[in-house]
Amino acid sequence: MLKIFETILLLGLISCAIAVSFSKKLLNSILIFMSYSLMMSIIWILLESPDLAITEAAVGAGITSLLFFVTLKKIHAMEEDIREDE
Amino acid sequence: MSKQIPQDELNKKFSYRLKQWMKGNVDQYVGLLEMQRQEEVGVTKREANRHKKEQDKLFAEIYDTENNKVYKNFLRFYKVAAVICCVALIVMLLVTVSYLPPIGDPTNPAHNEVVEKYIEDGMQDTGAVNIVTGMILDYRAFDTFGESNVLFIATCVVMLMMRDDTRKKGVDSEDMKYEPRFDTILQQVTYILFPLIMIFGIYVVLNGHLSPGGGFSGGAIMGAGLILYLNAYGIEKMRRFFTENTHRYICVAALSFYCLAKSYSFFTGANHLHSIISAGVPGRIISAGLILPLNICVGLVVACTMYSFYTLFRKGGY
Description:
The complex is a heterodimer of chains A (86) and B (318). Chain A has one domain (2-85): Four Helix Bundle (Hemerythrin (Met), subunit A). Chain A is built from 4 helices and no strands. Chain A has helices spanning 2-22, 26-46, 50-74, 77-85. Chain B is extended. Among the domains of chain B are: 47-98; 129-164 and 178-272 and 279-315, no CATH class.
């Protein structure tokens, strides 16, 4: 059962890594990158290194993506996305 | 009573000038290093017109992408080169991976006496139940000190680049007007979550030598909590307990304490002297010698760094 779970996570990791580079909108790339970090942190727990898992969840999924968001807002890349959606 | 030195002689003294410069009173290099303002070259209207025409012609030639042969060739070359580079990189990486030793092989270079030493004697030497923290903050504390300094320097560089000096004190910049202030949902969620996040962060820092975690992870969690608080309640409430000076004092104090404490332990360790800091009973909160205070130092530095990254990226100031 755990083996299947691990395989699903690894497959998700690969698909996320490919999707980040192929998505056209920067905002979507960041969201996918966030989910990549979350999956990675679960994999760290499965690999029995909880120290890394905590750090990965806090830094990778939390703060790095936040900084990306802020930068996108600064260079006005997010507003264009929203306007296109409307 | 000491003799009053006349101002002219004082000005010549190096120590006096250094003191004044440290205080920020007088910049000694004003008028020496700056670039002089260049005088405008007298241009007649006709010359300017001719110049503009030439420029327009040049630009039209450059930006004529449909007929520009060099540009088209470059595009073709670019595509081919990109594919070649990618394939070369992939082949290189795959070849490297094929040379890696198999996973779990006991003869791997990773399984040498260093690992055995860390695992077997780690608890006895450092007093930390969590071997990882014992390694990071005891055997390899010098590396961690460098990492903390890297974080501090990174903040300084970001401050140099992103700080908005034109902003007046006490006046909100344009950016601050549009932030969602008094967002009820966010405020209520933060009201419940913020203490929990902070307590969890502090727990991770303080229990770094007993359970998974440590200074860096706990500091990152606390930094994330501070960012959440800033988003919910705005910069005004944040300024009540966290300003630029707070960040500076905390970082400098933590780094200097780290440096002094580790210097002491290296000094005693290298000279085989008896250290007054005992390892204590493994498993207790106050044990493992210097690891607990060092964890707190690293945690404080990381939390401050994360928060100030966010504020500097966002508004260019605290």
